[in-house]
């Protein structure tokens, strides 16, 4: 029923004549004046409503007929579609793309144990990923996809997932139980990888997450060594912390030495990976000691560097063929290969460890070289240790090992999304003795890692290397026994640095004079300020 408003209370005759009725009892006056019989006044409440039942029923039947016709048309279309081949969904959901990218780029090459082995399936988790780990994996994967496609919308989505992972990580760290869980440490390490993937401006975010992960390791204490997973996560986290300390010219924290003393009970020290772990820490400590010591003892510095170089030289002695690689000659220039040969490794872990050992030896040789130059610049020159260096030092190129046929192997090693080779490449390219051709090769590798893996940290280090190259060629770098490999703090690329080395600011006697400098044209010096 439809409400029609307040009806007139006059008689029917007056309503038809559209005049005002006086509603006189017994009959209105106006009907009497005209000689009409007044029909009276309608006081029924039905006058307030109008019956629309018939109209509504007609509309319903019409609407139902339209719906039936539309349904019949849809059914006919469905019958036609069933005779066509099924359509493929080429675009997966965004979350699936992110997780797939993560597993493809950051889990490839993990070949121990093989997926076909009993041990792999015995220890494989079947209850899915922890929500915190899954969120960080998704953020990291979407960031990589966004970098590869240079899609600003995907980058915003990666940032949203990253902030969600940060909130979840903060909640886990605030919990007395979850703060010591393996999943919390894994998530923080993945957050540092996100910064390396996503941040194309600086290393500060990566450095902060590495420091946070190292504090979690400290909090976990000795109990983390009770499981193989705990030991592996400790080795991974402290390895990142070592690189961070080297970049900031800081010694390793004291708690690392205490934890390492306990860790040695669980490790095979003869394994080259474990041997390098401890060598890397000694390298960072030596570098920090040289930079922060109040006085310079050149002979002691050279002896310490030679001792560590000998350890590095014999790390692979007595190992099996899994640690050998093939040297493949390549006459003519081949893109992606520097020089006239390349190496083929049996596993990604072998290539990774070899490269790590090599860049540590580059550190040692740079320290020894700079110490010799500083000794030659003193009055009188300090030359007594030079003969020992010639006898004890061994060129990097002499450590090559031959190992059978290489017909069915590839020269390219993909290692954990490209992260493992970044710092080694940068160290090789930032040396004062690096040739322009080798620096160009390193920059080309950084560009390839950025394009193929979506790792923006390669872009940061490439910018830093270009700046470092300009500083060396422009004579803006002072001579140091342990030089800063990264540009200064006020540079556009890398914001974190430690204190500058004290070598080179003690006086002119530590610097090379013009005569000696002419014999070493690869290094340029400026007069230090007091």
Keywords:
530 residues, mainly alpha, CD2-Gal4, 3 domains, two-stranded antiparallel ribbon, two-stranded antiparallel sheet, 19 helices, 2% strand, disordered C terminus
What does this structure look like?
This is Zn(2)-C6 fungal-type domain-containing protein. One of its GO terms (molecular function) is DNA-binding transcription factor activity, RNA polymerase II-specific. Residues 10-38 form the Zn(2)-C6 fungal-type domain. InterPro entries: DHMBA_Reg_Transcription_Factor, Fun_TF, Zn2-C6_fun-type_DNA-bd_sf, Zn2Cys6_DnaBD. Keywords: Nucleus. The structure is a single chain. By secondary structure, the protein is mostly helical. It folds into 3 domains: 2-81, CD2-Gal4 (Irregular), CATH 4.10.240.10; 94-109 and 127-267, no CATH class; 303-405 and 414-530, no CATH class. Helices cover 55% and strands 2% of the residues. It is built from 19 helices and 4 strands. The strands form 2 sheets. Strands 1-2 form a two-stranded antiparallel ribbon. The radius of gyration is 39 Å and the shape is elongated. The model is unreliable at 82-90, 396-418 and 490-530 (pLDDT under 50).
In brief:
Helix content is 55%, strand content 2%.
Q: Strand order across the biggest sheet? A: 1-2
Alpha-carbon Rg, integer: 39 Å
Main sheet attributes: strand count, strand direction, barrel closure? 2 strands, antiparallel
Q: What proportion strand?
A: under 5%
Number of domains: 3
The coarse silhouette is elongated
Number of helices: 19
The helix content is 40-55%
* Parts with pLDDT < 50 across at least 5 consecutive residues: 82-90, 396-418, 490-530
Number of strands: 4
Whole-Å distance between the termini?
A: 100 Å
Give the integer mean of the pLDDT values: 77
């Amino acid at each position: 029923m439809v409400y029609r408003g307040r009806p007139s209370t006059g008689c029917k005759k007056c309503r038809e004549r559209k005049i005002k009725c006086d509603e006189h009892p017994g009959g209105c006056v106006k009907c009497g004046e005209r000689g009409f019989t007044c029909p009276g006044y309608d006081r029924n409440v039905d006058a307030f409503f109008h019956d629309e039942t018939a109209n509504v029923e007609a509309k319903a039947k019409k609407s139902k007929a339209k719906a039936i016709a539309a349904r019949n048309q849809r059914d006919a279309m469905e019958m036609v579609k069933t005779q066509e081949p099924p359509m493929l969904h080429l675009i997966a959901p965004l979350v699936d793309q992110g997780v797939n990218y993560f597993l493809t780029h950051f889990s490839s090459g993990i070949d121990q144990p093989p997926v076909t082995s009993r041990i792999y399936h015995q220890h494989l988790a079947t209850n899915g990923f922890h929500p915190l780990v899954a969120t960080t994996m998704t953020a990291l994967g979407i960031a990589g996809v966004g970098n590869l496609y240079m899609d600003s919308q995907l980058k915003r989505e990666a940032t949203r997932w990253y902030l969600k992972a940060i909130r979840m990580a903060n909640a886990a760290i605030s919990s007395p139980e979850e703060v010591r869980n393996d999943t919390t440490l894994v998530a923080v390490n993945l957050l540092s990888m996100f910064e390396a993937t996503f941040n194309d401006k600086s290393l500060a975010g990566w450095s902060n997450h590495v420091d946070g992960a190292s504090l979690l390791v400290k909090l976990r204490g000795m109990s983390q060594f009770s499981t193989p997973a705990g030991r592996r996560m400790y080795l991974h986290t402290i390895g990142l912390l070592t690189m961070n300390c080297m970049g900031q010219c800081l010694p390793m924290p004291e708690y690392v030495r205490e934890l390492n003393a306990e860790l040695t009970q669980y490790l095979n020290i003869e394994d080259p990976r474990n041997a390098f772990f401890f060598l890397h820490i000694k390298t960072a400590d030596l570098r920090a000691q040289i930079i922060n010591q109040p006085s310079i003892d050149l002979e002691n510095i050279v002896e310490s560097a030679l001792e560590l170089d000998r350890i590095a030289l014999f790390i692979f002695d007595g190992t099996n063929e899994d640690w050998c690689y093939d040297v493949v000659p390549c006459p003519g220039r081949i893109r992606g290969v520097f020089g006239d040969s390349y190496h083929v490794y049996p596993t990604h872990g072998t290539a990774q460890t070899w490269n790590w050992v090599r860049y540590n030896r580059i550190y040692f040789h740079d320290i020894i070289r700079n110490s010799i130059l500083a000794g030659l610049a003193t009055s009188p020159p300090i030359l007594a240790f030079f003969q020992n260096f010639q006898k004890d030092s061994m060129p990097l190129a002499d450590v090559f090992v031959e190992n059978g046929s290489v017909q069915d192997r590839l020269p390219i090693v993909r290692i954990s999304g490209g992260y493992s080779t970044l710092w080694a490449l940068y160290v090789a390219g930032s040396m004062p003795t690096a040739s322009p051709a080798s620096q160009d090769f390193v920059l080309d590798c950084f560009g390839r890692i950025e394009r193929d893996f979506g790792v923006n940290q390669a872009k940061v280090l490439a910018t830093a290397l270009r700046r470092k190259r300009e500083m060396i060629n422009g004579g803006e770098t002072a001579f140091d026994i342990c030089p800063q490999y990264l540009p200064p703090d006020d540079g556009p690329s890398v914001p974190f640095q430690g204190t500058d080395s004290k070598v080179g600011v003690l006086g002119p006697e530590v610097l090379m004079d013009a005569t000696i400098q002419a014999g070493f044209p690869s290094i340029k010096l400026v007069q230090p300020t007091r």
